[in-house]
Amino acid sequence: MSINVMRARADTPGVNHVAHLNNAGASLAPKPVVQAVMSHLRLESEVGPYEAAELARVALERGRSAVAELINCHTDEIAMFESATRAWGAALASIPLGPGDRVLISPMEYGSSYLGFLHLARRTGCRVEVLPTDADGLVDADDLRDRIDERVKLVAMTHVPMHDGLIYPVAAIGRTVRESGIPYLVDASQSVGQLPVDVREIDCDVLVGCGRKFLRGPRGTGFLYARREFAEQLLPGSVGLDGVAWDGVGYRLAPGARRFDTWETNCASRIGLGVAVDYALSWGVENTWRRIQVLAAGLRRDLAAIPGITVEDRGRERYGTVALTVHGHAAELVRAQLQRAGINTWVCLSNAACVDMQRRGISSLLRVSVHYYNSVEELTRVCDVLESLTVGTAMRAVS
Ligand SMILES: *Cc1c(COP(=O)(O)O)cnc(C)c1O
């Protein structure tokens, strides 16, 4: 079903101020999310913050159950965090690893995640191995199977990276990992809210996501999915009041992912995340995903036709993030030029996607990431600005 773009834009006050093409960083929030966050902050100031949380209990819990509904799991398989990095770190810290254990990861891991693996190796003595890729930048499930032996204790993949339009075949890889019974972690920070993410289909043990990106939720929100049976084996690196039951003598970890809960949280943002997920569900992620694909494919085609621009995305299937380089122009300066024209984009530096960008010898990429609420006209404006830049260079070169 095609979506009503006029309504999507009317729900998004930000589109009147800027052409926002930095959705892979953080999206413009829709009105209902902004309203929910602001009205909870107001309620806190009027009746008292704890008292406001009691009044808003249902909306607060909806954060968790909405995420569960979105990714097709049980509510007790979700723990809430203030970022995907925190969620990922909590998962890594709770899986027992020791010297000689092997951990296989994709080269698409986000900078913080990769550093988290290096830190894991330092802490536990495990060996972190970055998997090779084929010409399309993808990890091959058969190649992965050949590398697995009894010392492999963890496999981690990023569903879609933050610096490239490619989509990883996480479900096919999941089937391979499942055969061996090794814990399988998936980073869905860029994919939740953008494309359908189903943890049963991916068949992973852990999956993390964030709220501010394609889910259009508030900043400082993230979540962890831990498969029920898997979560029962996890020993969190730290615990807090809501994650344990204390009987006066000892304590028991809460069932499932709830063992990661502490007590304090940013209530307004949590409520906002629930509203954002409900808002995404009301459109239907499969519907908004179809529009993102159409917009991004058109943008890639138009950008590739501009002399001096190279679209750097790989992969066989691509999503809404378009990565490009502009010949003779530093990405930072191109971004600044676009910003002056009222267009938000972003620059990915090699610290954010260390392994992949280092392997390819790319130090920076201009990232243009579209969401369903973007208009064709906004994308045309991007191309016009970039074309005027590159045409200017060509003319200088001639004169
Ligand atoms: C943004 C991002 C993260 C980290 O999310 P935070 O919420 O900023 O911690 C992890 N992985 C990928 C692929 C990302 O794009």
Shape: globular
- Computed Rg: 22 Å
**Order of the strands making up the biggest sheet:** 2-8-7-6-5-3-4
CATH superfamily of the largest domain: Type I PLP-dependent aspartate aminotransferase-like (Major domain)
Secondary-structure element pattern, one letter each: HEHHHEHEHEHEHEHEEHEEHHEEHEEHEH
CATH architecture annotation name of the largest domain: 3-Layer(aba) Sandwich
| CATH topology type of the largest domain | Aspartate Aminotransferase, domain 2
Overall average residue pLDDT: 95
Number of strands: 15
Quote the distance from N terminus to C terminus.
52 Å
Kindly state the percentage of residues in helix: 40-55%
Bin the strand percentage.
Answer: 15-25%
Describe the structure.
This protein has 399 residues and is an alpha/beta fold. It folds into 2 domains: 5-26 and 284-391, Alpha-Beta Complex (Aspartate Aminotransferase, domain 1); 32-282, Aspartate Aminotransferase, domain 2. 43% of the residues lie in helices and 16% in strands. It has 15 helices and 15 strands. It has helices at 5-10, 31-47, 49-55, 57-71, 84-93, 111-124, 141-147, 170-180, 199-202, 228-231, 267-283, 285-304, 331-340, 354-360, 376-398; strands at residues 19-20, 78-81, 102-105, 127-130, 152-158, 184-187, 206-210, 222-226, 244-246, 251-253, 309-311, 321-326, 343-344, 346-349, 364-369. It starts with a helix and ends with a helix. It binds pyridoxal-5'-phosphate.
